[in-house]
Amino acid sequence: MNKYLEQLIELSKLDKEIDDFGPRIAKVEKMLKLSLDKERDLKLQAESFQADIADAKLKKAKNEAHLAELSSKLKDLTKKSALVKTAKEIKALQLEEEISKEQCDFANDEINRLDKIIDLKQTNISGLQEKIAEAVKEAEEIKASIDSQIQAIEEERRNVYQSKDELVVQMSQKILTFYQKIRKWAENTTVVPVKKQACYGCFMRMNDKTYASVLKQDDIVTCPHCGRILYKEIAEEAQA
Ligand SMILES: [Zn+2]
């Protein structure tokens, strides 16, 4: 086989491997991301419950302050009722007392309602805290396993880069430039096999003359349709 063609096949194989490392690492990292997202969502939910509790406590304090005001008001009304004389004055005081008592009832109902909310949210938070602890543990386990997987991939990547560097220094600059020009658009299908007399980049059938040149492997042959670099597929070689 033509030495340049051999180098081009090898170079395209290495370039494809290099391109595959990114998605491989991303796939592994995605597992961790999903786990961390779950942990974050649970924490946000717990924070939102905490905010609800703080809000309920604030409202409860306001109602309690109001109750204290009403209580001293009722005491004043009791004192006043001992002093008033006319029926009209008595009626007015009674009405005021009724209103204040209603307001007390309302404030007490509110406090009860808010207490229930606080209890419920606190129970929810306890449940969430268990889930958060589980999620943290899970994320840590995934992280440990991912770290070793990524290390292995990184080492493989270093080796492939090294092989590429070693190959590139041996190659002619002219051939390299030719390859890189096609690779700009053809990416990982820059150098493709020919199967059943068709280019495996564009899948178009080639004429007998081009096919014969590909089979000979004496020159670098490009596809007459798309311009990719062609080589004879190994399986066909075995058949021949
Ligand atoms: Zn083609």
UniProtKB/TrEMBL annotation:
Instruction: Return the Gene3D superfamilies for the record.
Output: 1.10.287.1490
Is Coiled coil found in the keyword set? Answer: yes
Does the keyword section mention Coiled coil? yes
Q: Which UniProt keywords apply?
A: Coiled coil
Q: Which InterPro entries match?
A: Oxidative_Scav/Glycosyltrans (IPR052376), Zf-RING_7 (IPR003743)
Residues in a coiled coil are 60-159
**Pfam families recorded for this chain?**
Zn_ribbon_9 (PF02591)
Instruction: Give start and end of each C4-type zinc ribbon domain.
Output: 198-230
User: PANTHER family per the record?
Assistant: PHOSPHOLIPASE C-BETA-2-RELATED (PTHR39082), SCAVENGER RECEPTOR CLASS A MEMBER 3 (PTHR39082:SF1)
What is this protein's record name?
A: C4-type zinc ribbon domain-containing protein
